[in-house]
Write a structure and sequence with these properties.
Layout: E1 9-16, H1 22-32, H2 39-51, H3 55-68, E2 70-77, E3 81-88, H4 98-104, E4 109-115, H5 122-133, E5 138-143, H6 152-163, E6 166-169, E7 171-174, E8 182-185, E9 190-194, E10 202-207, H7 213-225, H8 231-235, E11 239-244, H9 253-262, E12 285-293, E13 302-310, E14 313-314, E15 318-321, E16 328-329, E17 334-335, E18 346-347, E19 352-357, E20 366-368, E21 379-381, E22 385-391, H10 397-410, E23 414-418, E24 425-428, H11 431-445, E25 449-453, E26 458-463, H12 466-476, E27 480-482, E28 488-492, H13 495-504, E29 509-511, E30 513-515
Parallel strand pairs: 1-3, 1-4, 4-5, 5-11, 6-11
Antiparallel strand pairs: 2-3, 7-8, 8-9, 9-10, 12-13, 12-20, 13-19, 14-18, 15-16, 15-20, 17-19, 21-30, 22-24, 22-25, 23-24, 23-27, 26-28, 26-29, 27-28
Helix pairs in contact: 1-2, 2-3
The chain binds guanosine-5',3'-tetraphosphate.
């Protein structure tokens, strides 16, 4: 029971495809975690998300998500003590962007939600790839068992296939939709059945239940066909435990939160240039994984979200951002305690602090007391949509350059300055980023711009010796650009083009990610 503050933290994100039930599950997790009054707000946010289509609404959504980017709640668990959960919101869905990816760099585990009736979609797979890159282990929650779903085996096999992982069913739905009877916990062989007529809130728990023959058979097959739960394999990212339930009806959510408390990993050491920094290191260190412009367009202040890696943060503390060398006093940190909305004065490893600033803090910055640590591994991702930026007023080149630099810093877009030609190229991983770009250019920088098709499809960062880069440039000048840091980038016409050039230039690395 004598858990250190860091050991009692569970910092995680939920990943899913649209409509799988992320918002509903978030709400129910907060409900089960004791942060009840927040539930309505999450719902409101879900609605805002769906309705959004113009800049005002984007702004609205962005504003609201400043406060709901992190949801912290705490609960007591027998034998474990009080566990503090930090649930990080991932924008996700069709509006997913680098922001989503970066959020995943700040968590220790993820919950993947899938709809029992549907499959795993490409975007979810991509998020999963990021989890793998970061060794973020995944718990799978198969949602909506209160409706007719696909056969359980089919779902399990698809998860195994899509994630290229072992799957381990931890629970089993006894019937789905109209035939739903309850959820069997395969570890304890207890079934929880819906209480009363409402069929909501599993209440009645019964040990060693008598199951319908076909379900008993299924479970026997499953126990023979899937590996047993192995904590190490899960935490290592080789196995995903699978839970079944219904977020809407609150089935299986208590079991899920219990699993996060008991098996999801506490804050881990984070890689830095000088080796991993462990949570129990005395010095306060952290990294900025997200920067969000404030809601108020009159003020250019931004909130930098820092994940605390080590030490105990105290309000008013001075921290040195790696980019500056000059300490900043963190007088008014935003700490996210959903429970009582009180401003907390301390934060522990795994917690997230929002630091208001005027653009001094950038994504990827390390903050530390002594400025001797640099965290690594916050990547940029190769954009999948490239556009040429055309100015409506050609005299605004300087403002445009400043805006593109700023916005790429914030992670809204990536910018590439081609070696030949004067038209700059922006790259994004999601369409919504382009809408945000045009709106913000106009609103914040008074720059009217149009986005035109670019003759390129994707980009790769080039790494190699100066001689190899020069030789490559001789033949490919028209496809070369520099990113905002001045690093060389190959603009490719197609994925095939990347493969072709890679083959022809084995001494160069064509990288789809770049460390910030
Ligand atoms: P998202 O954030 O992943 O996009 O999903 P969200 O929670 O908004 O859920 C998408 C839809 O699925 C919602 O219905 C929600 O009520 C429903 N849903 C979520 N979990 C369950 C579940 O366990 N069972 C069933 N049957 N439905 C579920 P909607 O009609 O689009 O929205 P609303 O009118 O209910 O707000």
């Amino acid at each position: 029971m004598s858990t250190s503050p860091a050991a009692s933290r569970r910092t995680f994100a939920i990943i899913s495809h649209p409509d799988a039930g992320k918002t509903t599950l978030t709400e129910k997790l907060l409900l089960n975690g004791g942060a009840i009054h927040l539930a309505g707000e999450v719902k409101a946010r879900g609605a805002a998300r769906r309705a959004r289509s113009d800049w005002m609404k984007i702004e609205q959504q962005r504003g609201i998500s400043v406060t709901s980017s992190v949801m912290t709640f705490a609960r007591e668990f027998p034998g474990l003590g009080t566990i503090t959960f930090n649930l990080l919101d991932t924008p996700g869905h069709e509006d997913f962007s680098e922001d989503t990816y970066r959020t995943l760099t700040a968590v220790d585990s993820a919950i993947m939600v899938i709809d029992a009736a549907k499959g795993i979609e490409p975007q979810t797979r991509k998020l999963f790839e990021v989890c793998r890159m970061r060794s973020v282990p995944i718990i799978t929650f198969v949602n909506k068992v209160d409706r007719e779903g696909r056969p359980v085996f089919e779902i399990l096999d698809e998860v195994a296939d899509a994630l290229a992982l072992d799957v381990c069913p931890m629970s089993w739905p006894v019937g789905m939709g109209g035939t739903f009877e309850g959820i069997l916990d395969l570890q304890t062989n207890r079934i929880s059945r819906p209480e009363g007529d409402s069929r909501e809130f599993l209440g009645k728990v019964e040990a060693d239940p008598v199951l319908p023959d076909e379900v008993a058979e299924e479970i026997e097959l499953a126990q023979a066909g899937y590996p047993e739960f192995d904590l190490e394999a899960y935490r290592h990212g080789d196995l995903t435990p699978v839970f079944f339930g219904s977020a809407l009806k609150n089935f299986g959510v208590a079991e899920l939160i219990e699993a996060i408390a008991r098996i999801a990993p506490p804050p881990r050491p984070q890689p830095s240039e000088a080796g991993p920094i462990a949570p129990d290191n005395d010095e306060v260190t952290g990294f900025v994984f997200k920067v969000q412009a404030n809601m108020d367009p009159q003020h250019r202040d931004r909130i930098a979200f820092m994940r605390l890696v080590s030490g105990t943060f105290r309000r008013g503390m001075k921290l040195v951002p790696s980019g500056l060398g000059k300490p900043v006093a963190v007088h008014s940190p935003i700490l996210f305690f959903a429970q009582d909305r009180e401003i907390a004065d301390t934060a522990e490893p795994g917690d997230i602090i929002g630091i208001p600033n005027h653009g001094t803090l950038r994504v990827g910055d390390t903050l530390s007391e002594r400025n001797q640590v640099r965290f690594t591994g916050l990547p940029n991702f190769a954009p999948e949509i490239l556009r040429r930026v055309a100015l409506k007023d050609p005299t605004k080149t300087k403002q445009l350059r400043k805006a593109l630099d700023d916005l790429s810093e914030e992670g809204v877009i990536q910018v590439f300055y081609p070696e030949i030609g004067a038209q700059w190229i922006v790259g994004v991983v999601g369409q919504l980023q382009l809408d945000v770009l045009v709106s913000r250019l106009e609103a914040e920088y008074k720059v009217g711009a149009m986005l035109e098709p670019a003759p390129f499809d994707t980009a790769r960062w080039l790494k190699g010796s100066d001689a190899a880069l020069r030789a490559f440039a001789d033949f490919n000048k028209a496809n070369l650009a520099k990113d905002r840091d001045g690093d060389p980038v190959f603009l490719a016409r197609s994925a095939w083009d990347v493969g072709y050039q890679q083959e022809r230039n084995p001494e160069l690395a064509f990288s789809a990610t770049k460390e910030r």
